[in-house]
Every structure is written in C-alpha cells, then in structure tokens.
Predict the structure.
Amino acid sequence: MNVLIQPLLPKIEEVVSSQGARIFRIPMQLFPMLWGNSYLVLFDTPASGMYRVLVDAGSGFGVSNDHLESGLQEVSITTGIPVSLSNLTHILITHGHIDHFGGLGYIRPQTNAKIGVHELDLHNLTHYEERLIFVARRLDEFLHESGVDDDLRTHLINLYQVTKSLYSSVQVDFTYEAQGMQLGPFEMLHVPGHCAGHVIIRLHDILFSGDHVLHDTSPHQAPETLTQFTGLTHYLQSLDTMLSWAQGIRLTLGGHEEPIEDLAGRVMDIRALHRQRLDTILDYLTRPHTVADISKQLFGEVHFYNVLLALEEAGAHLEYLYQRGLLQVANLLSTNGRQPYQYCRIV
C-alpha cells in the first residue's frame, strides 16, 4: 500500500515587540507552488482593549484557509487567549494581490472584524470582477506589443484569469488614508511599486513589509502601463521612502519567506539586482529587440505562470529605461500599431 505523506506545516513563530505586542507568524500554502505568511497580533491597550489583528488573509485557495484556522487554534492553545475568526478585531491588508486578500471571501462571513486596505487597492477587493476585466484587456495589449504570438497570448490571459477566478468581491470597512494612515498603535506608509496600493505597517519596532521587501526574493515588478502606480520607478522611490520612515525597526516580517534583520542591507541587495538587470538590457539593446526577446535574455526558458511574470518583469525594466530617454522604438513608423515594438539603445 502506498502512503501519501503530507509535508509538515512550518512552525508558528512568535515575536514580541518593544512594547509587548505578541506577533505570531502563521505560514500557509497559498497556491501549489507558493507559500506565504499571515500575522496575528495580540496587543492589550488601556484605551482600546485587546487588539486581535490579522495582517493579510492568505489566498483562500486550496489549504490556505485550513492553515489559517489551524494557526489561530494553535495560538489559542499556546497563549491561553481565545482567538478565532469570530473574535478578530481588525484585518489589515498590505496590498491588493490575491495571495494576500483572497482569503477574505472565506473569512468575511465568519467575523465582525473591521477590514482595511489602501485607497488605491480598494477596487481590487470591492469591485474585483471589474478590475479583472480591465487588467486582462490591458494585459492583452501589453503582450501583443511585447511580441507574444496569438496562441501564447491567449494561453497567458486565460492562465491569468483562471488563477484569480475563485474570488468574488468583498466589502471593506475603512481605507488607510481616510484613517490618517494609522489604526491605534499601527502606522501605515504607502509604498507603491509592487502594487498600486501597497502599504507597510509599523508596530513599535516591528515592520510588516507585505511583498515590498522579502528575505530572498526580489519582489515582482510589472510596467505601469498595466496598472497605475506600479512600475520600477515607483518601487525604487518607495524603497528610499521606507528606509527614512522605518528608522529604529528591529525586525521586518514579510508576506513570504523568513524575517529580515538587516533591512537596509536587504534593500541594497535588491537595488543591485535591478541595476544588473537594467545594465543587461542596455547591453543587449545595441540591436532592436522586443520585450519577449528581453525576457528570455534576462530569465532564459521559463514555464507556466512564470512566463507571464518574466514578461512583466522585463517590461517594467524596459519601461524604466525608456522613461529616462535611454531607449527608442526602432520600428515605430513601420508598425502602424499592428506589429510588436522593437526597442534599441539610443547611442
């Protein structure tokens, strides 16, 4: 008899802030090939009582909800403090990507917790179906201009829509700017780039970074032509803003991967990686090439959803260089908008 051995769920870890807030990292399998973290914060204040705050809600896909529920149960047993979806006080969404808010469809009917998100990602949660249509149309145009053939373009758009079809719109209770970018002891900073409405959240000497900064991975970038307030320009500017704002941070907790102890050092590494990619593109574009060509030059042969991610990443870096007058479209006059654009370096 064959026995299917399930992978062990990573251990829930606790961090205590400088003022005594207890923070629990709850690992979840968000999609078959993607793991991530939600964070439960327990903090008792004289003015407002006990905060039971969930930072990010998982994807809602597969076992993600089960992992969240079992994590809350384990914290309850460990701390002796009853914690469940039903008695959460707030849910703070760092940004409008489905692996961070998709679980709201499961959570919302079971809780009275107040849900918050930044204004620029509000529609991602509350008018999700509309946003999906808009982005799919822009994505089709981007892929055509990038030199992706019709069959692959159709496949990629279908893949994009299928991975996001399990969520339906959920109403939220407040937006961060309307709250003065603060909820009691939680402070928010808008850091657009990876996502239009991305925020990082500071609690005492702990920073919740969402996907803005991760321990190992350079957060994915897409061109602003797909969604306003994304793009590499916004992202790099947001890194600078974050470092100024996050003085005194002891530990950074990302939406994926392990905690970060040296935030400034990690930002330096991310910047170096983007600089390397930009230099690679400039060296490659001594002759005209499409975004699809550049994607292969940067990332080689990739498969499945990574094909789309690689094209968007290449497009974001190309856009950054084009915005600074370093590139031109070599075949603009001959395309009449019907052929993929070929970019080359301005000598």
In short: The two ends are 67 Å apart (CA to CA). The chain has a mean pLDDT of 94. Residues 8-125+169-261 form a domain with the Metallo-beta-lactamase; Chain A fold (CATH 3.60.15.10). The longest helix spans residues 263-284.
